[in-house]
Structure formats: structure tokens, C-alpha cells
Amino acid sequence: MSSSSASQQSSSQQSSTAHALSPYGWDDDWAAAFAPYADQGLLPGRVVRVDRGQCDIVTAGGLLRADTAFVTPHDPMRVVCTGDWAAVEPAGDPRFVRAYLPRRTAFVRNTSSNRSEGQILAANVDHAIIAVSLAAELDLGRIERFLALAWESGAQPLVVLTKADLVPDPVGLSYLVQDVETAAPGVQVLPVSSATGDGVEVLRAIVSGGTSVLLGQSGAGKSTLANALLGADVMEVQAIRDVDGKGRHTTTTRNLLALPGGGVLIDTPGLRGVGLWDAESGVGQVFAEIEELSGQCRFHDCAHEAEPGCAVLAAIEDGSLAERRLESYRKLIRENRRIVAKTDARLRNEIRRDWRIKSAEGRANYAAKRGGGR
Ligand SMILES: Nc1nc2c(ncn2[C@@H]2O[C@H](COP(=O)(O)OP(=O)(O)O)[C@@H](O)[C@H]2O)c(=O)[nH]1
Ligand SMILES: [Mg+2]
Ligand SMILES: [Zn+2]
To answer: How would residue 107 be classed by pLDDT, with cut points 50, 70 and 90?
Structure first.
């Protein structure tokens, strides 16, 4: 085969890859990032589900199962996850994932309240949709926590208030929406009902561009909403008695799906809660109005407690800022500092351990060079 026909073939392969994977979000930038792997004969694909040691990947040739042994480092943040773009071996049993492309965005939570244990839930997400059920009383603090992680991920957050059919009074509903809006500056708040279809078309239009992830507590109605957007019962919905998520695990085979109207949707398992994970800038964005007011305080290091000329306290005084917001802001800042401090301590320990191993090796080598037997 002449070199020119070989390169023609490889460019036509690339365009057919682009064509088959574009519903999954493949674009020119991903293709450029993938080029070195394409040169090694590896196939691009997007991770649609991760299991212990294995993952399902959608490629131009269809869905395949691959082994993640080569991309399972000790750091849980560097483990391949749903939404990643992977470089997979073209053949083999098992096939191995050789690498994944640098992430544009990543949604990370802390799985423990006392320790720092990062868990990455979704990668390469454009819209972080926080599903909040109107069947229960609104917990604005929890919404703010989700929002902090959503902003921190690099994606644009969006709050959907699910099960809006359970609030038939439109005035009551608009108050609930307003409450959430005050807790979510810069974020659209959309009431939806999978039961009646209200709001679903608006949401469909938003998610038709890029990749969206559905986040929120177990029972919030994420899977039902995913099915409404998909126009098919693909995601398993919990039985009513199972809304606390204790009952069973979903048997969904994919967590990432291409939507018929365009866009990609990632459904996440029900989360009991989300702990902050180094989300300082995310917290700042959730409380943008407080950060802005802080800039007007007389003292640049104002703690907004009793300082003269405090713009934050003045705003609480005149009613333009809810005291709850300031308390929630403080709580999340404190939690974040605690987690960051713990992470640093853990990293420091790891480095120290490394250093001990290396110095022990050094001593052993030195002893061996000197003739070993003593
Ligand atoms: N009334 C009402 N119930 C809903 C709606 N969406 C979901 N549900 C119910 O809420 C429960 C939990 O839904 P599911 O989608 O499994 O929640 P997930 O855990 O967030 O995925 C199920 O019993 C659903 O039938 C809705 O729009 N209206
Ligand atoms: Mg679900
Ligand atoms: Zn102040």
C-alpha cells in the first residue's frame, strides 16, 4: 500500500469515527487530543459505565467492555469515570483502556464527612443539573452544597425542581422557585414534572447541547426525568417504597446516553449527600452576592461579625441579604477549609512515606555496594 493511500484511509477512518461518535460529544478538539493515540492504533470511545476493574465504552464500532487495569492508579481522582474519553486497544481479550484524555470538567465529591476521600462522579460535563424534589421540604443548604461542587466542576449548574405536579398551586410554586433562586445566583431554576411533562421541553432544549449530568439525592426523580428526556424507559426507576435508596441497586446498563434530540445525558446513582471537595471557588460562586458585598466592607479582611462599615451586615440589616445565606456561607467555607487541611496532611504523609521508602532503598543500595554482608 502506498503511503498516500494509507494516509487517505486513516483520514477517512477518522471522519467515520467523528461521525459515529459525534452524538456522544466527540468534536475536533477531542480528535486533536486523541491524535497521538490514533497514531498508536488505539480506538477512541466514551465511557458509559464503570464497574469494578471494567468499563463499558461506546466506540464507532459499537459498545465494548474493556479492562481498566492500566488506568487504575491509587489516586481515586485519576481513575477513569463515566464521561471520560478513552483510548482503547483495537483487539484483545480482555481489551485494555490505555489512557483517557485530559478532562475538560470533572464533578468530584467527598464521600466521607470526617476524612478526605474524593470520588469523581462524572467527567466532561457541560451542564450540571441538580434535581431537587418538591415532594419534600426544600433544603436550601443542601442545594447550595450541590451548587458549590457543580460550579467547582467547571460545568454550568442548573436546578430542576422535580415533581412539580405535587405543587398544583402556581403561586405557591413560584414562591418555591424564588426561594431557590435566592440561593442560586447565576443559575436557572426550572420546575419540571415527569408526570405531566411540564418543563420537560424547556429542559430538553437546554440539554440538547453538550453533556449534562443529573445530580441529586436518591429519590429526587432523576431517572424518571432521564426517561422523559429519552422518550423511553431506559433508566430504572425506584419503586415508591424504595425512595430512600436502601432497597436495591439499579440494573441500568449505561449511565451515559445520547439523547434523541441531541446532547448527552449522564445519570448518577442516588447520593445520600455530597461532601465538599476542595471547592473554594465553587463556594464563592454560590455566594456571589456575599463575595461582592465583602468587597465593599471597610476592612478588606472583614469577618462580617461586628466590624464597623461591614457591607454584609448592612445588607442583612436592610433585609436585602438573608441571614441564613451568611450562615450557610460560613458553614461551607469552614467545611471546605477542614477538608483541604486534611487533604494536605494526607499528601504530606504520602510524600513522607515515599521519602522513607526511598531512603531505606538508598541505605540498602549503599550497604550492598559496600559488600552487603555485615
Ligand atoms: N408525582 C411525581 N412523582 C415522580 C415524578 N418523577 C419521579 N417520581 C417518583 O419518584 C420516585 C423516585 O424516582 P426516581 O426517578 O427513581 O428517582 P432517582 O433516585 O432520583 O433516580 C419514583 O417513585 C417516581 O415514580 C414526578 O414528576 N411526579
Ligand atoms: Mg435513579
Ligand atoms: Zn464585612
So the answer is: confident
